[in-house]
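Notes to self after the call with IL:
- keep both proteins in one doc
- input above output, always
- annotate only the second one for now

Protein 1:
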Amino acid sequence: MGHASAVDYRRLEPSDVAPAYAVFRRSLFDYLLRIGLVDATTAADPPIESAWASQGPWVEHLVGTAAENWVATDDAGRVVGWAMSTERDGVLELTHFFVDPGLQAQGVGRRLLELAFPIGRGRHRVIMATQDARALSLYLRFGVRYVTTSVDLYRSPEPVEIASDLVFDRLGNDDVAVNAVAALEQTVLGHRRDLDIRFLLGIRPGWIASRGGSPVGFAFGAQGSNSGPIAALDPADLPAMLDLVEREASATGVEDLYFSVPLLNSIAVEHLLGRGFRIDPFYVKVLADEPTMHLDRWVHTGPSFIV
């Protein structure tokens, strides 16, 4: 693929999205091979088109609302690295950071991070990171530190009964719904994500949970196997919201339902394990500059591109 000295850097263009996504998949499966989760044959020819079918809308949404979006190209003009970040309410989050396996550990990643996740930018800074030691070593020099580990818990959903005094109202795809969810996210995460909420409302079901007429949480249901985000002002309300999503997923024929849960959220973890959910062996770390997010009452958006 060429040597790092021949690499150029430029902002991503529309025609770069497909090759950048392919770099992401090759890099991810190289990592999965190194930690023993896939074999060499799979890593050499990772699924790209089938993954795009489920992840493509998310990638296109993030590309269209990115704060910074950079690619590295070799001397033949081929995309060999990609780094993208979003900025929501002053919070800069690195969503994608991948270098072709043949060019890793040659300085390409550091330069991409300098461009897409510059030191000093953002009221706060966040990364959802794999456990790749080389990437983590870089991230920890870019103004973030360890907050928690997050795991995917999965099972075939069942029509579980919901034991709660909460009232669940289905969200519409309108400004009222966006503002209702954003206000709760402001309290739980410390920032609003209106652009992402509006996108979510267009692709998966959502509910506001209320008690005594006051909103106390929200839940986004299944889109394929993915779900979330889910948040509660009181962590004790999370089991009912998880059960709602599981029940609705069962009713719509979802085969395997995934929740991406920070291990700080002990109530959700214990509830899901008690329901027979299993932990997927692939997990990520949440890195941030300050512990401002109340992740003990939060379930991530799946797939885990953003917090």
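Protein 2 (the one to annotate):
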Amino acid sequence: MDTNKKKVAFVIILMLVVRAIWYLESLKVHPAPIGQSGAALNLDALTSDNGTATSAPSTAGVPSAERAALLQLAAADKAAGDQPAIEITDPTGFINASSDFTLASLIGKKVILLDFWTYSCINCVRTIPYLNAWYQKYGGEGLEIVGIHTPEFDFEKNLANVQTAVKDYGIQYPVVLDSDQGTWNAYGNLYWPHEYLIDMAGYIVHDHIGEGDYDTTEAEIQKLLAERATILGTDAAAIATSTVDIAPSDLSDINSPETYFGAERNSFLANGIFFMNGNQTLVAPATSSIGLNKLYLGGVWNFGDQYATNLSAGATITYEYDAGDVYMVAAGAATGTVVEVLQDGQPIGAAAGSDVHDGKVVISSDRLYDLVKNPDGGGEHTLQLIVNSPGLQAYTFTFG
């Protein structure tokens, strides 16, 4: 090998090492305390009707009995080690709310459920029916839900895209766009979805990461609403004690990880160079050589940070998974990029997801696509996608 070739090889190896270190660091949890940035919301520093603590809402005009009860609640929260909520920080847009919307305007009046989400996240999508049901059930009893939409991918920063998703998911509560991660960072958040329950005094008294435990969260909502009713002198007995009747998703059959296509995180790419931007011409192996939870691409692909784009017609994506459902975050041509869907070597039939028709999915707008919904639940299957024309932007596979 001559000197120039050695230099090129060294640079490539160095790039792969740097990428690998970055990826391993991204997998670690780096906790950040609530309130490391942003304005804390609480009532415990307020001592009079016209006294307002720094960055805290005023209780001017609040009856003295209510104010005393709120300050007593704040003192109890503080003694219990609860942390004050943080104001919305550096928002980039609002849906179902005016541009001057703040959490401070709700403290002392409402119970708040703060939901960090993003519209292409399947875990968030499966949580939305519960949020919608709670808003309908408890909105009149003093619950306010606020969605903090913090994007994972660049296309989720687009206001029009989020507006379409909010409409499609039937969301009526306020949604704040957090495209610069201002509120996400202020809360030291790390997860989608992540719900924080904030009581009347402005303290976070319960939080939940991910899906599940809906009954527990709803019971906490009921508890805080009853507490609110007592403070305001309304009928606490009127607060419902039943739970919403929604069948939760069965997550026990998911044995495949989220799998990214973009060079920043495509560690499951099995027949190409992962963590490397640029074009690669790839040949998918025979079906007998495919490994579980490995991503195989065929054809010419261009790898960007967040997604991979096929440059050749007839390009393929092959993945053997162990789950019940398969979803794909993707985008395509404005007129639609046609993708054939095969499972276990055959055009997909009864297992087709809601976005697949006659064995094909037409991908256009940037969103989550429902590809596979196996009627018999989880199990190992080989999924193959054949992209009929150049231009598919493949971001990630997720599973259900």
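Annotation: The radius of gyration is 25 Å. Residues 14-36, 45-56 have pLDDT under 50 and may be disordered.
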